[in-house]
Design a protein that fits this description.
With about 400 residues, the protein is of the alpha+beta class. It is built from seven helices and 26 strands. The longest helix is centred in the first third of the chain and has 15 residues, at about 15-30.
């Protein structure tokens, strides 16, 4: 019986074709004589002008495989996070007895603020996990995930939003031999190889859970019958000096309880969103999400120690023996969050010890509490496990 084999390679050569060839060769060497049926590449934005040539090289080197790629502000390979500079990272996997179904999606507006998606794979398996790379300007990833939660409950999505390019049509996506600057590309994976998904939000709660008692879209007017600013003030007065420092230098976050039927909350029960504004005189706050009256929330802070502890605990809980990992980590993490570089990649490599590739995203896709969400400041991982091993 053949088993799941994964390889990963990274090159920082200044020439994009040399870098792609070196990374591809390193990835292929790890899986021996097996021909991969899934290849995913992450190409630093410095190589954007050569993206089509890199795509051609990958298709020639891995003929017959489902191939995905995107441009990125920073790429991840092994235990390294290259936050800037030219680099190519390649992940190659031989997934036996597993269906790898490529697809490309486009969002089409149909009027009145509504839209629909074209390009869905036919006969999508109910147990499929979707691995997706999206363009941030042309593709409303959060809207898509909300639709999937309603219409295809149980379908998991993991991936990231391309961080290459700062304007529309600057990002590059690859599906097979098709180079795109819009939409989303992905594969639906089902069968023997199982994907364990990890979403590390890296936050811890402050104060106590509260009910939203008055809100309008993303503005919270009352929490537990009081002004949100007053509730924050109460938490401040009871906080430790360290937590006051985190609150002061922010941003402050708010966790939305995913399962309102629960009464006790722990790690993984909250969807973390950011407090993006406040009106001191009115006592109200704004959040980067639509808030609903009656839902339970709790304020949170994010700091390096909590982020480290959260990711480590989630990695320790991986079910089964992993063979490879793809990591989609926020471009606001790295040295923007941690004192030393390579934190997320280094920790994953240390604990799991398997080939790793990925990129630093402009948004991460992943499930929390059985529902898919678009995140920020997370490390979202696709851990590949052979159910027959």
């Amino acid at each position: 019986m053949s088993f799941l084999r994964v390889g990963a390679g990274l090159s920082t050569d200044l020439d994009p074709l040399t870098a792609a060839a070196e990374a591809a060769t390193e990835a292929a060497a790890t899986i021996g004589g097996e021909m991969p049926n899934l290849v995913v590449a992450f190409v630093a934005d410095e190589h954007r002008d050569a993206f089509e040539d890199v795509a051609a090289l990958l298709n020639e080197r891995f003929a017959g495989a489902a191939i995905l790629a995107c441009t990125a502000q920073g790429v991840v390979g092994g235990s390294r996070e290259l936050e800037s500079g030219p680099a190519v990272s390649v992940w190659a996997g031989f997934l036996p007895d597993t269906t790898v179904q490529p697809f490309a999606l486009d969002f089409v507006e149909v009027g009145d603020g509504e839209g629909e998606y074209s390009g869905w794979p036919e006969q999508l398996s109910p147990d499929a996990c979707l691995l997706m790379l999206c363009d941030r300007f042309s593709f409303p990833a959060g809207h898509l995930l909300d639709m999937l939660n309603r219409e295809r409950p149980g379908t998991r999505v993991i991936g990231g939003v391309a961080s290459g390019g700062n304007q529309p049509d600057e990002a590059r996506l690859l599906i097979g031999a098709d180079v795109r600057s819009h939409g989303a590309v992905g594969v639906a994976i089902s069968g023997r190889v199982r994907i364990e998904t990890i979403v590390s939000q890296g936050c811890r709660p402050l104060g106590e859970p509260m009910t939203v008692t008055r809100a309008d879209r993303n503005i919270i007017f009352e929490l537990g019958g009081k002004k949100p600013i007053d509730q924050i003030g109460s938490i401040w007065r009871q906080a430790t000096p360290r937590d006051r420092g985190l609150m002061a230098h922010g941003p402050l976050h708010i966790g939305r309880v995913i399962d309102e039927y629960k009464t006790d909350f722990s790690r993984g029960d909250f969807l973390i969103r950011t407090v993006v504004g406040a009106d001191q005189s009115a006592g109200i706050i704004a959040v980067n999400d639509v808030m609903e009256v009656g839902e339970t929330v709790q304020f949170h802070v994010r700091d390096p120690d909590t982020a480290d502890e959260d990711l480590q605990e989630l990695l320790d809980g991986v079910n089964g023996q992993p063979s490879g990992v793809m990591m989609f980590t926020c471009n606001g993490r790295g040295t923007n969050m941690f004192e030393l570089p390579d934190h997320d990649a280094g920790l994953v490599s240390k604990i799991l010890g398997v080939p790793l590739a990925g990129f630093m995203c402009a948004g991460e896709l992943g499930p929390i509490g059985g529902r898919n969400f678009l995140h920020g400041f997370t490390a979202s991982l696709a851990v590949f496990v052979d159910s027959a091993a």
